[in-house]
Structures are given as C-alpha cells and as structure tokens.
Amino acid sequence: MTVTRTDLESNYSLDRYAIARFAEHGFVKLKNVLSPETITQYEPEITGKVIELNTQDLPLEERDTYGKAFLQVMNLWQDSERVLEFVSSPRLARVAAQLLGVRSVRLYHDQALYKESGGGVTPWHADQYYWPFATDRCVTVWIPLQETPLEMGPLAFASGSHTFEHGRDLPISDESERVLQEALAEQSFPEVVEPYELGEVSYHLGWTFHHAAPNGTDVPRRVMTIIYVDAAMEIAPPANNFQEADLAAWLPGNAAGETISSPLNPVLYSG
C-alpha cells in the first residue's frame, strides 16, 4: 500500500519535449506514469464501483451508438475512499498543470469509461462541447486499467485538431462521426492511434478531437479518466443543454461569470 501511495504522490519527470508535443498536437502519451502494481491495486475497487453504480441495463444490441460505445460512470470518488485516493493523485495533477502551463488545477470530475466486449465505436468528438468553461485550459488524463492493444479500441487522436473550430457544436453521435471523419481528413489532421502499455496514460485538451474503435476482444476495455481544469477558470454561460446540465451537476452553487469554487472541485495540485 505504501508503495502505491508513493507512486500516486511522487513527481513524474515530465520533460520539455513532452510539453512541446502537447502544445503542438493537443495530446501527449506518456510511459510509466503509474506502476503496474499501483493500477493492479486500485483497479478492483474502480471496477467494483462501475458495476455497482452503472445504470445501463439495456442489452448491447438494443442501445444507440452512444450507449454501445461504453459504460459511463462519473464521480466515483464520492462513493469510495480508495477511488478518492486514486483521483486525488498529486502526481497525475501536477502533470496536468505542467501541460496546461497553469499554477494550479482543480478536479472537474472523474469518469470511468468501460467499453464492453463487442462494444461499438466511440464517435469523433471534443469533450469541451459539454463543459461551460471560458478558456481551453482543461485536460483529461486517460488511464487504461489493463494493457490496451489496438483490437480493444484505445483512444485515437486527430493530431493538432485542438486548433480546428469546425465541429465544436456536435455532441457524440453518428453525425459527429460522419461529419468530423470527413472534415478532419480534408484538413489533413493525422489520426494517431497506438496500443497502451500498463502504466502508460495520455492527456488531451478539451478541444482535441478523438474517437475510439470497437472493442473486438472478449474482455472489457477498462479505463479511468480524470478531468482537470485551471484552478482560476471562469465559468462561461452555458452554450447548450449539456453545459447547463454539467453546470448544475459538477459545479453546484456556482454560476456563469464566477470562478470555479464548488466543493466538488477541490484543488488537486498547486505549484
């Protein structure tokens, strides 16, 4: 236990080339951010909470495209001290702050994304479509809880697409997959998809377009994500119904024009 806690709390050596790659491409993939032992220690608790809190009860074949993409459970940290330890990791949060070039980062929310065996495509989208933030200083760390080969559907990024404003008004859907697949190809944003080793994670900006292939293996693709936001982020007026819902759910007591200060959004790293 001491070893895994140390792993979550110690500093990760992030070089300036990784920071430069992130700024240029809108994402970066980093090796050995967490040890296999740490992931093995926390995975059973995360998976147990996904099973306990999941509300999706339709068979896979009866769901829409979004429902087939993954089981989605948010803010597991509120239901488990063990998950709270994991989500509160200063090591992970410090990397987020360094990549964003900000002094401090807050938690926006966590999110488990489990793509079941036979689970379908995750359509092209940008996460920040859903978030009422005034700037782009927000980032998601994508943490696979097992080795993730290509046939399991790892995250695929459109490199450099964080600068591309077309399609930012599209939620995850069949339409976003069709429209963005064509638009990103026309603009020659390379698609980058690679397997993940155990302990390898990626960070991507809120406006970086990404998607994932179906899970063609006989086991679930288990992924935990943590979304970080500049601790000084101002809340923007919601631009759609999803942002209105996010403001109410993940920023309770806060309003547009205010700096995030909700009790659900603690500072996880301050430099």
Give a count of the beta strands, DSSP E runs of length 2 or more: 11
CATH architecture: Sandwich
The count of helical stretches stands at: 8
Radius of gyration: 17 Å
**What order do the SSEs take from the amino end to the carboxyl end, as H and E?**
HHEHHEHHEEEEHEEEEHE
Helix amount, in percent? 25-40%
CATH class: Mainly Beta
So, the CATH homologous superfamily? q2cbj1_9rhob like domain
The CATH topology turns out to be Jelly Rolls
Number of domains: 1
Give the DSSP E fraction (strand runs of 2 or more residues). 15-25%
SS class: alpha+beta
Shape: globular
Provide a short characterization of the protein structure.
With 271 residues, the chain is of the alpha+beta class. The chain has helices at 2-9, 16-25, 36-53, 65-69, 81-87, 90-100, 174-186, 241-250; strands at 27-30, 71-74, 104-115, 122-125, 138-144, 155-158, 191-193, 201-205, 210-212, 221-230, 267-270.
Describe this structure in words.
- The chain is α+β, with helices and mostly antiparallel strands.
- The chain has a single domain, classed as Sandwich (Jelly Rolls), CATH 2.60.120.
- It is built from eight helices and eleven strands.
- Strands 1, 2, 3, 5, 8, 10 and 11 form a seven-stranded antiparallel beta sheet that branches. The protein has a four-stranded antiparallel beta sheet with strand order 4-9-6-7.
- It is globular, with a radius of gyration of 17 Å.
- The two termini are 26 Å apart.
